[in-house]
Fold these 2 entries.
Entry 1:
Amino acid sequence: MTHRMVEDDYRDPGYRGADYRDADYRDEGPLDPDDGYPPEDLDKKGRTPAQRKKRRWKIIRRSAYAFVGLFIVIPAIAFVITYFMVDVPSPQSIAQGQNQAVTYLYADGSPMGKDVPSGGNRQILTPAQIPDVVKHAVIATEDSSFETNSGFDVTGLLRAAFNQLTGKAGGGSTISQQYIKKATDNDAPTLTRKWTELAKSFKMNQTYEKQDIITAYLNIIYFGRGAYGVGAASQAFFHKDVSKLDYTEAALLAGLIQQPGRSENPKVAQGRWNTALDRMLENKYITAQQRQSAQFPQVIPLEESKDDANAPYKFINMQVKAELAQHGIDDDKYYAGGYTVQTTIDKHAQEVATQVATDALKDQSDDRLLNSLVAVDPKTGGVLAYYGGPALVDVNGKKQGARDWANTPQNPGSSMKAFDLTAFLKMGKGINETFDGSNNRVFDGRKVRNAGPSSSCSGQCTVAEAMKRSANTVFYDMVLNQTHPGPVGQAAQEAGVKTKDNGGKSLISTADANIALGGGNTQITPADMASAYATFAANGIQRDRHFVLKVTNAQKEVAYEAQPSAGKPAFDSSADKAKQIAGNVTMALGPVVDFSHLKCPSGHECAGKTGTQQHTMRSGEPAWAANANAQTWMVGYTPSVSVAAWVGADGDQALHGSGTSPIYGSTIAGPMWQKFLDGYLKGKPAEKFDQVPLIGVQAPPPQGDQNAGDEPPQQTATNQPDPGGDGNDHGGPITGGPSQPHWPTGLPHWPSGKPSSHNPPTGGPTTGEDPPQE
């Protein structure tokens, strides 16, 4: 029987009244076959096609809502939260934190070299210092949408994702993202890092101008050859300032950003250069004609680009760093400011010092010999030249850093006698006071000997004559019985010797009278000796030794500038008294130069003192070691420069010259000192010391000729040099010496004059400044 539907019985299959609102969420069960649809149109659950269609669309809508919520709304909210939580590294802060090379200049402003940090060379530039051609080359090559994107490029991200899935190369990072990655030094392959990078990159583009972002990027990115930043790269590849680069050179640097480690591979470099030029053309930064006519730029050889080849002298660098630390630029700040340091070093003086010191040891038979030379300007305290030996030495076939011998304390030997005399003059005693200058005198049961026949003088020997001859017995007597050790140490420090308890390295021992002859535990650096003698040259005005004139930062602002030093009176509160004391020391030291067979530079008065320290012979050493010396010196000055020259070894070694002959202050150190002064002062105006009144006795008492041990021994068949114990080996014939001299009335200087010659003595007593033990 057929059932016929009436109008009231019919309902839309998708409509079930108020009770059917949630039809999609429950199963109504199969429809009755008599409801009006053929059985074949119903699914297994009895749903009609219209019901099924509506259900599908509702599922799609729900999925779309979930997708939008999960992948758009929630990330957007998270991105906003991240945006406000992250800090964007400002270009200024990153620039300050980057290690940059420190540029060194000589006193005249000419370049000395660059101190490059271990991470490579860096140079922080301003937007105006980087030309557009460089910016355009990098933008075209690395991020063509840089000018318009907001810190990240969606199409670039999708392209990068596709490349990763398909195994192809190429990333999607913008210039902003690359900068963030380099600035934060975080390259971890994590979603967290990438997420915060995107937020920081976006925030950076909302915070800074595009020109600041591209500049910051170009200051931090690595180009190869140890060059961080386009400023350093321009020098490393072309020896050019970045402002001088043309479009072909800019293209090469831009291309190398992707493969800086292969910058020396010609094929890679050529390929990256072509890629950069093609992209510059696509972005209309160059014309088709420029692209066609482009020639691969000439790159300097790799060895010429190495930063260490152009580094400042290592030991000057070390001294400058130590000095800057005292003025607020310590190790944490040293490489951060892009500093330029103008030093006190005179270029010509440094070249002369390096040459004469190197030449002095070239033909020596003793390969243990070391040397150093320091020159100081008495008028300023500025170091004019500083040579502490080679910066590198060969040890078992490998190069390693050497010690700075100019800053290593050594026994000063008889060069200490200048401070003995200073203490004596401060007592009101003078250079015409007399002492027993004979040899082998005994003090408190201890025998003190003079170093050789020419070092002894009469039983009534003036201090001036004793200084010229370097008579040990006179100065040991003076310090032991009159000045005492303490005032000698004080005089040395007043002159400029910096001890360990006063920020220096030198040691001054006042425990016994060994200080008189520069032995025992008294050890002074060559740098301190040059500074201390500079005080005598400066008429008793002491000025601290320094290496730095001025420091400017990357913005050309002055970070530190040394102020001209008026100095301070060294040996007395009165400048006039200090000058008189210093002038009397100069009177006594003047004749030493000539007596040691050295000469003052032409047209220049000079004064100085040689010195040696005897080697302590050890068991098993050859017999000649008993006469050997371990340290030798020549320290002296003109009114415009004070120079300390040291020749010795690492520790107490029995040093020798030709054959097994001992070396003295005038053997190697003296000629080195003289050659430096000749070279440095050549062509400079003549100069004389100021005249000052004598202190103490104006003239020694009249007396006849006395020669207490001065007569040279008879010549023998041997051919040993004169063992002048403090370095006064006269290199040739010397007589028994002139009779006891008198101070000529009205003359400010002790008259010099070469002693007459004699045959070289032989078989003299052993050398040494330090009084031998009984």
Note: The chain has a mean pLDDT of 80.
Entry 2:
Amino acid sequence: MQDRTDSDSRKLLRRLKEILAAAGGGQDRLDQITHHIADSMGTEVCSIYLFRDADTLELCATEGLRPEAVHQTRLRLGEGLVGRVARTGRHVNTADAPSSPGFRFMPETGEEVFPAFLGVPIQRVGERLGVLVVQCAAARQFTDDEVYGLEVVAMVLAEMTELGAFQGSQSDSMPPAHRFPLMIRGATGQEGAAQGRVWLHEPRVVVANPVGDDPDKELARLHDGVDRLRSTVDTMVAAADMDGEGEHAAVLETYRMFAHSRSWLKRMEEDIRLGLSAEAAVEKEQSAARARLEMAADPYLRDRLHDLDDLSNRLLRILTGQGIDTGAAMPDDPILVARNIGPAELLEYGRRLKGVVLEEGSVGSHAAIVARALAIPLVIHATRITAEALNGDAILVDGDQGVVHLRPEEAVAKAFLDKIAMQAEAQDRYASLRNLPATATCGATVQLYMNAGLMADLPSLDGSGAEGVGLFRTELQFLIRSHVPRRAELAGLYARVMDNAHGKPVIFRTLDIGSDKVLPYMKPQDEPNPAMGWRAIRVGLDKRGVLRMQLQALIRASVGRPLHVMFPFIAEIGEYQDAHRILMQELSREQRLGHPMPSDIRVGAMLETPSLAFAPKRFFEMCDFVSIGGNDLKQFFFAADRENERVRRRYDTLNVAFLAMLRQIIARCEEARVPLSFCGEDAGRPIEALVFAALGIRRLSMRPASIGPVKHLIRRVSLSELRAVIDEAEAQGLTSVRGPVTAWLARQ
């Protein structure tokens, strides 16, 4: 019986291959396919539903249902049994469809006389393409062999869709894949706009021949590919063991377990015996595993998707002979497109990139941090971008709005280029202000500093007109390595940073890790709320060896120059006292060893928790400077996770309650006569920056590109007059001062 099923499946797949190779339009191919599937399986009905858009399925071809329903019957994702298959990625097999949960009667199809229903997803590596359905008049349950056989056929349909088999000139055919304009709305990771060509970080392997003519030959190819894959993985694990990196080795050991999975290999062998090529068998099992794991409640199991995807992609490249290098040449204006990417990989691309688009990521992710350091636009949460984009596609990245235009229409491209031109023209105007102070018409001057984290940032110090580096993120040098950097390495880096600052002050923030910034060689902490967990100075005080080593490197880098050290995420005075004491001990130790000392030492803290605004007066008196960490302070003040796109934009920085908090901090610092700065995304937004300055914050630190717009606006207005506008808005009981401030600016 099984041999006959295998033979029937191979005959059907060979017929599908002939249909793929034959001339004809997309609709004609769909009609032929439904006819041959129904005939092969002995069913009265076979129907193909394909996605018209991300949420809508359309009946595109049928054998057995009413022809007039084709391209007229549509269902929402999750609606009816067909929609359920599409949403879950799992088959539905029932002898009595009308009594099944979620059934939806569609009278225009005439399906009421076919109660037996089997629907399987048409999907490719996480990309939902449609649903394949067979139905019978006799109430019966389809066998496991029939279910499995239909899943194999659906895999071939998925590959045919990818290869454009269903494109055609008829108005009722499906729109051409990878050819039509597409707008994807994501979220802002880094502001800015860029035009370029797609460069896929991990290009998809297109399976050109989903049907295997010789099962024995395909099985041999599969076994050879799996042997080579396992050898590569075994070598990786052995190398990890030699390095003694226990946690890393444990992860690789789990990875090796997947590679040596007998059940994984057995399922692919069965697919090949039914008629798939080796490559199509790999993709079928990859798609099926994705559908299962994406529905898993256990986050650990969902994380294994990355392991399975990586193994499958490696095996596909082995089978197709592509290896890691596909031979494609990077375009002159590359926009990197990826599901996600690590900081080291992104830094390898460096400033060659014009922009980055990610399906995943977060505003505080490693990739976002590096993108900000490289000053390139970044859009995150761009759903399905890796499935939709092909290498070389035209693409527009609007980091300001969090929008991506793939293969844009001419009118969209022209409007976007106009926007880029206007921004470039504005930057030219700002360049003329480079050497002028940010002095308001009332005579008040605001110092504008830049944020940095890489040596590549330092040329912007002079070009932007920044008066110094208000925040140098030292954690990037830890994030991009697979091991803890050596003290001599860090000392050399910090010295080069000071050299390139040409005497302008550089404030070094000590290691700020934890939360969203987990080192690759650091054991992950299973914390329910990592943003409020073991991070930043808390890690430094618990792992004092790393903190001492970094402080030693900073001292040795200064060599007779002023040194500015800032401790992050201080929540109460005791943490600052402990960190300050460690720094003083290291200064004494370095002096005893005869090393050159800094000419001056300034020590400060980042105020990122509301608790520190209520710290004893002694805290402010101990600090040489205080810097408000606006991103964290805002999320804790409003209890709105800045990694959560549903809430992070819900609260306005210019809310009067948040401004009241800032007023209190300003008053505390003025009382102790300690300099205060504001560091964070909002410092680089002109209206927010103007309000901070009007309240009395006279030092702002931002990305280099924001200095020009902020300085331009400050020089146009009177901060004392703006302060009166803010006071009046608060006196009126308004929730936010944004409206009154914006209206006042329009009159200036």
Note: Confidence is low (pLDDT under 50) at residues 169-176, 240-249.
